[in-house]
Amino acid sequence: MRSLPFTALVCCVFAVLLALQVALAHGLVSVAATPVAAPPSEAMAIPPKPAGLKAPAAEGGDGEGDERLTFEACTAMATGVRDVCWQALARQQSAVDPQGALGVCDQVVEPELKLECVDDVAEATTLADRAGAERICTGVVDRKWRGQCWFGVGLAWAETDSDYALGRCEHAEAFERFCRHDVVGEVSLVDVDAGVAFCTRGEAEHADDDLTRKTCWHGIAKYLARRDVGEAAAACERATASWRGTCYHGLGWGGSERDPDGTLAACAGFGPWADYCRQGVAHEQKRVDPTRALALCEAIGTTTVRARCLEFVTR
Amino acid sequence: MRPGYVACVKLTPQARRRLFFALVLAGVAAGAGVYWQRQHEQALADRAMNDIPKEEYERWMQDLGYVD
Questions:
Q1: What is the predicted pLDDT for the residue at A43?
Q2: Is B14 in CB contact (< 8 Å) with chain A?
Q3: Residue B68: inside a domain
Q4: Structure pTM?
């Protein structure tokens, strides 16, 4: 009897803690710092970054117009923008103090922004410290953001070490094809032969994966067309025959980002691939002028290409 | 606070030791539960990213301008 109150107390404590554990296990209560990732449809809305970050200008360098943030400035900001400030501060610090930059990322409250911050630090520091950036990416637990981390590192190395850059895409998880597309595009800007060789090798290495093979050629053309559609067309002529249409689609998209009218005029000179080029322009224009995109699709002569064009711009 | 009392319950030294260990065990169990739940959520998120159906993945790439 004497021990009854004590026994009751212990039982109550156990019951409460057991109930809490069961509730946590069934997701009724969540104390996890990292929330469940958005469902695929929302997660896929995050576009892969098309261009690698550049390291912040050194002190006294050509950082004209760059606002130099401080820890105190970010702390003083309103809650809604503070996380963005921490991200920007981390990027600024990355070149001179990567560990400090990661510490700044720890200040970010929103879990997705925190992981993006870590990725940005890796991307910004890899050219100066390859091994350090590799450690950062390896340490990211979330698979999505780990893949993004390697993607960013690959982009950063594209113009300097194409083999290493393209090799990072193998670690990019769900973003491997996006990585191959963008990194080979960046590589092609400085060495189109290396880009073409990479995609040609991919024809054998990914023989059972059409999507991986064709996006490679698409990336070369898209990036080159942003500079010059003639260069892009020359690269497309080296593409595997099966994917030449996809290549010219990339040409149309990339050229349209810069000059849709000029690109459309150039498309006319691409013989059997003209309509694929026009399809690329139409697809790109869907983002800025859906009415024009629809008209461009309807003007395409090739039946199959027109059908696919219309399906895309009207969905 | 009266010495020897815990929540208005008078405890012997032995009882206090038992309570201490019981609470430690309960804390460990709760911590393990939280850890397991986080691992479970992360696994779900990882699976969601890597098990995207091919058609959905291709549409994703089309929408972002990565393929025709």
A1: 42
A2: no
A3: no
A4: 0.75
